[in-house]
Amino acid sequence: MLTLIDCLQELISWITISKILLLIRMHLLSLLCLGSGMATFFGSETHALLPYDQYLHRFAAYFQQGDMESNGKYVTRQGTPVNYSTGPIVWGEPGTNGQHAFYQLIHQGTKLIPADFIAPAVSHNPIENNLHHKILLANFLAQTEALAKGKSPAEAEAELKASGMSPDHIQRILPHKVFQGNRPTNSIVVKKVTPFTLGALIAMYEHKIFVQGVIWNINSYDQWGVELGKALAKAIEPELQDKTPISSHDGSTNGLINFIKSHY
Questions:
Q1: Which of 201, 221, 242, 260 has CA 20 to 30 A from 149's CA?
Q2: Is 57 a catalytic residue?
Q3: pLDDT tens-place values along the chain, 264 residues long
Q4: Catalytic residue among 19, 27, 45, 100
């Protein structure tokens, strides 16, 4: 039998869930602008997910499957080819690892790369009175500010002059120190990474994937591209059982199969 306390706890849980659903709806538009909006209207081909927490180090990989398998389609639900860009390439790495790997391309490259930055305000590992996490958050905040504001030629020149650099050297290096800015990002901050907040993040991104599929008029719930590869693999597997040369495929595949078999 449910007690009054049980009922109140259930009510509080539903109120909390309702608040989370409200937050998902509030933030969905921002996610959609950087997702379907940037892909459809600005030609962005990729989308970076950049969590500043090691416990989320596989978050981007999870949604590579969720997003790309769902919305990697070129025909509408009615079976006609689309004339616009659909599902972007989803990728990313956690925290400062990415800063020393691919952020250069996001800041100064020729590709427009929308990015979602995700961070918890509170760490599970408050090392040295939370100093480590504060340094991490400082990087999180600095990157989004830099991507938004960039650095103008005047700002870069003033900085170089203040360093005591000669005028000739300044003129040579100045173009390389300019950042255009205006790079689109979302900043998503949760209080702490918990099963509940992780579930809320996943629900938010799953809802984004579904709504993008509706906007693009594609079926987000089939994976025929995955099925084709599996079907071909079933045909190729028996051909790898002996050293008999194969000629039933295209020239490239025949050559690869026969090379592999020659080294058994």
A1: 201
A2: no
A3: 444 444 334 434 444 444 555 555 556 666 766 667 777 777 789 999 999 999 999 999 999 999 999 999 999 999 999 999 999 999 999 988 999 999 999 999 999 999 999 999 999 999 998 999 999 999 999 999 999 999 999 999 999 999 999 999 999 999 999 999 999 999 999 999 999 999 989 998 998 899 889 989 999 999 898 899 999 999 999 999 988 999 999 999 999 999 999 998
A4: 100
* Domains within the chain, CATH numbers bracketed: 16-222 (3.40.50.10490), 224-264 (1.10.1390.10)
Of these residues, 230, 234, 237, 263, which one is catalytic?
230
Q: HEC string of the chain?
A: CCCHHHHHHHHHHHHHHHHHHHHHHHHHHHHHHHHHHHHHHCCCCEEEEEECCHHHCCHHHHHHHHHHHHHCCCECCCCCECCCCCCCEEECCCHHHHHCCCHHHHHHCCCCCCEEEEEEEECCCCCCCCHHHHHHHHHHHHHHHHHHHCECHHHHHHHHHHCCCCHHHHHHHHHHHCECCCCCEEEEEEEECCHHHHHHHHHHHHHHHHHHHHHHCCCCCCCHHHHHHHHHHHHHHHHHCCCCCCCCCCHHHHHHHHHHHHCC
Known catalytic membership, residue 69: yes
